[in-house]
Design a protein that fits this description.
Number of strands: 12
Number of helices: 6
Strand content: 25-35%
Order of helices and strands: HEHEEHEEEEHHHEEEEE
Strand order of the largest sheet: 1-2-3-7-6-5-4
Mean pLDDT: 92
Helix content: 25-40%
Structural class: alpha+beta
Shape: globular
Low-confidence stretches: none
Distance between the termini: 34 Å
Bound molecules: biotin
Amino acid sequence: MDQISLERIGKQLELGWVEYKETVTSTNDLAAAWARKGAPNFSLIAANHQTKGRGRSGRQWFTPPDSALAFSLILRLDQEPMDVQRFSGLGALAVCTALQQEYQQETQIKWPNDVLLKGKKVCGVLPEAMWTGSNLEAVILGIGINLTANAYPKDIPLLYPAISIEEGLGRSVRDDQFLAAVLWHLKVWFTKINTLEFIEAWEGNLAFMGEEIEITQADHQLIVGRLKGLDSKGRIIIETQEHETQIFSASEIHLRPVVDTSRK
Ligand code: BTN
């Protein structure tokens, strides 16, 4: 990919400002700086290599050169979304449905926003909200997709097993075409972000529905229960072993199945 192919995508999909960078710290940082300068809705920064890529909960995200898609989209809203949490589902739903519909793959979302291909993590999403007082100025939606096996580290333990598009599909894909497919789906879902259809699609693609899962909270407290679905705000509903219903929001938890099928 290069600036010219990104500009072509920008024109086709009516994006805002677009820029392709060889190396950045984090595309989310650049996008936030752009948002402060007034970049319009759907402005996009993509990079070949991130030196300080960020994941959820302050974790690192690796983007070695020539191995992944790393990009951030600036999203602005005419009206406040019902819940900012919905942005967590937006990126995952876009990648999930792009892989299903354009690449005929079976994919799931490990709530809130990891996309699983063959049961392993192929994509992570980092939404960062920018507020001025109580006014939501923009959401920076950062998305990282492993294109080849070089995208994820082999020498450090991962929180969840990883896979790349190339490994999952058994062939490589063109990065610009893949990006365009994801952005197209993202624009469609963005128009529906405040609808019930959006929540139903997010829920309909959830991994481990009806299964026992473990939830690790920010204070490291572990809860085991059955995944029942999503509520109207996109929070997960769990039935605990004591048959109590508990609801969790995306901010600071980690989820995994009790029977870990991804490691088979
Ligand atoms: C996660 O699974 O923890 C979220 C990973 C999000 C990674 C993307 S890559 C593009 C953007 N820039 C970053 O620094 N992070 C996001």
